C-alpha cells in the first residue's frame, strides 16, 4: 500500500471529501500505524480512522480553548503577567506540540 492507494480508498469511503482533507487523512493514518500494510484490511483502516478522528477532535478542542485563553492574554501587558498566565502560555506550547506531533508522526515529548 502507498499513499495513492490509501487516498483512493479514502475517496471511495468518503466521496465528498475535499482533496486537502483526503491528504490530511492520509498523513494522519500513515502516522498512526507501524506498517502501511495494516491499512489494507478494511476493519483495521476503519479502526485507525476512528482513533485518528478522536485524537484530532481532542487536539482541535484543546487548540480552540487555548486560542481563547491566548487571545485574552494578548490584550494584557506582558510585564504584569501572573504565574497562572505564564502557565497558560506553557500549556499553549504543549497543545501546539501535540498537534504538530500528530502530523509528523513522532511520539509525544514528555516535558
Description:
This protein is mainly α. The chain is built from four helices and no strands. It has one domain (3-104). Helix content is 72%, strand content 0%.
Described by strand count, sense and barrel closure, the largest sheet is: none
How far apart the termini lie comes to 35 Å
Radius of gyration in whole Å, from Cα?
Answer: 18 Å
Give the overall shape.
Answer: elongated
Give a summary of the structure in a few sentences:
With 111 residues, the chain is mostly helical. The protein has four helices and no strands.
Question: Which SSEs are present, and which pair or pack?
Answer:
Layout lengths: L2 H11 L5 H14 L9 H33 L8 H22 L7
Helix pairs in contact: 1-2, 2-3, 3-4
Amino acid at each position: 500500500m502507498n499513499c495513492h492507494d490509501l487516498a483512493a480508498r479514502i475517496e471511495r469511503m468518503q466521496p465528498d471529501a475535499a482533496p486537502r482533507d483526503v491528504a490530511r487523512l492520509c498523513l494522519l493514518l500513515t502516522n498512526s500505524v507501524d506498517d502501511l500494510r495494516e491499512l489494507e484490511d478494511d476493519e483495521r483502516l476503519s479502526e485507525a480512522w476512528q482513533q485518528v478522528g478522536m485524537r484530532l477532535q481532542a487536539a482541535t478542542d484543546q487548540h480552540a480553548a487555548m486560542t481563547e485563553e491566548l487571545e485574552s492574554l494578548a490584550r494584557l501587558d506582558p510585564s504584569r503577567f501572573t504565574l497562572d498566565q505564564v502557565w497558560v502560555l506553557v500549556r499553549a506550547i504543549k497543545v501546539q506540540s501535540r498537534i504538530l506531533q500528530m502530523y509528523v508522526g513522532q511520539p509525544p515529548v514528555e516535558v
